[in-house]
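Practice problem: predict the structure.
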Amino acid sequence: MNSGKKSTSFLNGRLGSVREWHWISSAICLIGMLLFSITGITLNHASQIKADPQVTSIEAEIPTALMQAITIPAEEKAPLPSELVDWLYDNKGIRTQGKSAEWSEDEIYLSLPRPGGDAWLTIDLVSGALEYELTERGWVSYFNDLHKGRNTGVAWSWFLDFFAVACIIFCLTGLILLQRYSSGRPATWPMVALGLVLPWVLILLFIH
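Answer:
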């Protein structure tokens, strides 16, 4: 009798642990899953969702003293000098920190892709002429790029990995709970099998 009680207690404790992992992972995944589900729909219908890109252009002259302090690096790709980075942000609101530009004898070109848009700037090393263009494609494009991890940086990449692990835990603990209660729900395993087989049927029959 004692061994039976201990076994039941162990299983209940183990089930409780699975439940805790399941609800904790579901809480972590909740907002992310909603975001990824909604953006999955918008990505699937991207060609049907119209967007009017907003283009911002800036033309300016880099101060002569600042231009004279610029030294062309030996490498073809190198970051902008810190003084130039500060001037661009303080005077034009252009963020270039940590970005590598393409250098030539007479020009600097810097690509500045971002979620939901794109940007670039050029600086003429002879005249000091600055040209900058920013294209923004709206919030739908912004969240679509978050979904894909496009031009989002290291921090968002880490979040995607963390979110993916939480989703795996959520699914596996859900499967364990399904197994635990499947005896009273005959449709459990047919539904699981349907979820497994249906994507493969669609791939084999309709995707070439």
